[in-house]
Every structure is written in C-alpha cells, then in structure tokens.
Specification:
Oligomer: single chain
Shape: globular
CATH topology of the largest domain: Nucleotidyltransferase, domain 5
Strand order of the largest sheet: 6-5-4-7-8
Distance between the termini: 13 Å
Strand content: 15-25%
Number of helices: 10
Order of helices and strands: EEEHHHEEEHEHHEHHHH
Largest sheet: 5 strands, mixed
CATH architecture of the largest domain: 2-Layer Sandwich
C-alpha cells in the first residue's frame, strides 16, 4: 500500500528515519518531496495516548456487560497509567462509529426472511426507540437505528438500508401488528412488488398460531441484558446511536452464536473472516483500509 502525505495528498514520499512514541514505540517517519514536510502514517490510533490493545480491551469489556466505571477500576489494577470512565466512553463512541462506517457498506448473503422490531428506551428522560432487523437464516442484524420515535419514516429508513444491503434476497418481511409497518414496508420495498406477491409482509402476534418473532426477540433479550444496567442514555441521540452500533458490531462479528455452532453471524453472512484473537482491533484496522 502506497503512503500518502496527509498535508498535500502526494504519494511522492520516502522513508526518513524513525519516530519514538511512548504509546506505540518506534514508528517509521516519512518525508514528502512535494511539500517538504515530515510525517508518520496516520493509523486509527494516531495521537491516542493509550495503546490499541488497551482501547480495544475497554470496548470488549463494555459490550460484555461491564460498566465504564467498572472498566476504570479494572485499569487501575492492571495498567499504571489509568484512563477515566469519560475517556472510555469516548473510545466506545469513536470506534463504534468508525467500524460501523465500514460494516454498514458490506453486501450480505442472507436467507429469504427478515424480521423487524423495536425496543423502547429513555434518552434524557424522554422516550426513544432502537429499531432493528435480523435475518432468520444467519441471525445477522441487517440494519438498525436509534431514533426519537418509531413512526413510519423511521421504520422506512431501517427497511431501506436493509434492502440496500441484501439486494433482492429478501422475500418475506415479518413484523408485529404495529400499523406503521404496513406502509413503511410498501414504501421501502415497493407497493407493486408486494401486490404482485414478490415481497410478502407477514404480520404475527402472540395471539396467532404462526407464533411470534422468536429470533429477533431472543436477540432483544441479549440486548436488554446488556443495557439493563444503563441509567438511561444521558448523552445525545447521536452518541446513543453510536453505542447501539457498537452492540450491533459485537452481536454480528464478535460474539459466537450458540444457534450457529459457535460461529458468528458475520461468518455466514459476509466475506469478512476474522482470524485474530483481538477482533475489535482487526475490524478497526479493516475499516481504516477502506477509508
């Protein structure tokens, strides 16, 4: 991979010694012949005062259910230079956003049925919703969004993103009896496709014989288990959305799924095969290559 100068974007650069940092050790320094400036390669952890392993450790602990203050206490015991819970929260938001920009553009290989549902939360004391969809074959969380309301437009946004990522693979969209789903599905997938029977909108409730959306509800149980210790999302909708994006990454790429014989949903639904023990770090590096 060719190195590009961060100042003038030229690739007419040569190696020029090394640069020593306390966090990342010795790093290659470059010299740009076009603008006569020296620089080091800007990695995803450029100018971070903590090591990549320490930062990704905090992400992993957080999405396994440890609070930011408990992670801070853990760092105090094992790292001489501690990071505050505020810094840990900022790392979670920053790198969840970064990985999500990469994973949201992946094309998926999924089955024929997708389930969609929503979970109610509180943000600054006000009602908010996490809307998400899941493929029933691979258990991959296809698309999600954390929003202020669960109206027709919000549902349509999630459905349109799911359609974009799955192309024409989905034939059945299953939801509960919430009335806004009907028009949102029509708008996202096309009224005439549904009328011709190319796309089927299946409505199920606990009262019907078909059963409920059991697969997405099981995933929501995992989500509620992780978020039940939150005292509400005290930040903005944007930061709350970033945290939930991180959960989506954890669910799809990090956490082995019991129903998939220990594989992750991404093993079945994507071409991304993570081979490193530190999957968070591997995903961050992959997202940096795609920038």
């Amino acid at each position: 991979m060719k190195i590009t100068c961060p100042h003038c974007k030229s690739q007419d650069v040569v190696k020029r010694g090394f640069f020593q940092t306390a966090t990342n050790g010795k790093q290659q320094r470059y010299y740009c012949k076009s603008c006569n400036k020296k620089f080091i390669e800007q990695t995803p952890f450029y100018r971070m005062r903590n090591s990549p392993n320490k930062i990704t450790l905090c992400l992993d602990l957080f999405y396994k259910g440890v609070s930011t203050r408990q992670i801070q206490n853990h760092l105090q015991a094992f790292y001489p230079h501690n990071a505050s819970w505020v810094s840990i929260y900022q790392w979670i938001v920053k790198y969840s956003k970064k990985i999500s920009q990469f994973t949201s553009n992946l094309k998926l290989q999924v089955g024929k049925e997708m389930q969609i549902d929503e979970v109610e939360y509180k943000t600054k004391g006000k009602q908010s919703w996490f809307i998400d969809s899941i493929d029933t074959t691979t258990r991959f969380m296809v698309a999600s969004n954390y929003v202020k309301s669960r109206g027709q437009n919000e549902l349509k946004q999630v459905l349109k993103l799911a359609k974009k990522k799955t192309d024409n693979q989905i034939e059945t969209i299953t939801s509960d009896g919430f009335l806004a789903y009907s028009k949102a599905v029509n708008l996202a997938f096309g009224y005439y496709k549904i009328k011709r029977g190319e796309i089927k909108h299946k409505v199920v409730t606990q009262l019907k014989k078909e059963g409920f959306n059991i697969m997405i509800e099981r995933m929501h149980n995992s989500l509620r288990q992780r978020t039940k210790t939150f005292r509400g999302f005290h930040g903005s909708i944007e930061s709350a959305n970033a945290i939930m994006r991180g959960f989506e990454i954890y669910y799809n790429f990090i956490r082995p799924h019991l129903a998939l014989n220990g594989k992750t949903p991404s093993d079945l639904a994507t071409d991304i095969k993570l081979s490193e023990n530190n999957k968070w770090l591997e995903l961050i590096n992959l997202s940096n290559k795609k920038d």
